[in-house]
Amino acid sequence: MQKLGNNHGGYHGETIDIRAVLRDIAAAAPAHGWTTETFHEQGEFKWSALHRQASLLRDPQSVIRIYISAGIHGDEPAGPLAALRLIQENRWPENAEICLVPCLNPVGFTLNRRENADGIDLNRDYRNSKSAEARAHLAWLERQPPFDLYLCLHEDWESHGFYLYEQNPDHRPSLAEKIIAAVSAVCPVDLAETIEGRAAQGGIIRPIFNPLERPDWPEAFYLITHKSRQGYTLEAPSDFELSVRVNALVAAVNAALTSAA
Ligand SMILES: [Zn+2]
């Protein structure tokens, strides 16, 4: 499987019709038992959080709460497409209760650009937020009970393969190796020893940082600080075919959920 060689200085691959993708998600979700909460509206777009109860209610103690988000960067189309596929395939562990936010930056997708309409990188706006989108999303997140696990779906236009960031401050059993193993069956993994300036091993970055020392929080910093003690930012390589990247993110989510359940 080869890189396409399209991405010089940014993402120059296939784009998506985000309106059509959101329509498909809105049609598929209720058919598979999801409820929808709109937490923000701007122009023609609605920001939705989907919720799916665990189907196994015999043992409430075994229920795990999972948070999944996608589409915070408008030049990373595989995330919302993976969210749609996961809803359509409907293969969730029966003890998984899931909150899914399928697209956090629809306007960015209409522009095929990372930032929102005002040029704000929403994924640096989860502390002292300037954007209406991040503020509305944070207000929704603050109303949610804690999650056992978070998964943030992303793409990286520069990478040579799939990789992930793990946050696991309490040293719970790691899901990282299982995610990488599952993805490697459908997509190349970036085996570089340095990715985005950080030490990496086998496609896994375990960054050491104190969120409180950084002013420009990505969504994951908010989540690990306030909502969940374990999580993964999943990065598909956007210089490969779009279908490969969607397969990679879907495989990663399924592996994480199966391992955590
Ligand atoms: Zn991203």
Give a written overview of the molecule:
The longest helix has 19 residues, at 242-260. A hairpin with a 2-residue loop joins strand 1 (35-42) and strand 2. The strands form two sheets. The chain has an eight-stranded mixed beta sheet, with helices on both faces. The chain has a two-stranded antiparallel ribbon with strand order 7-8. It starts with 17 loop residues before the first helix and ends with a helix. Helix 2 (78-89) crosses helix 7 and helix 5 packs antiparallel against helix 7. The chain is built from seven helices and ten strands. The protein is 31% helix and 21% strand. With 261 residues, it is of the alpha/beta class. The protein binds zinc ion (ZN). Zinc ion is lined by residues 73, 76, 154.
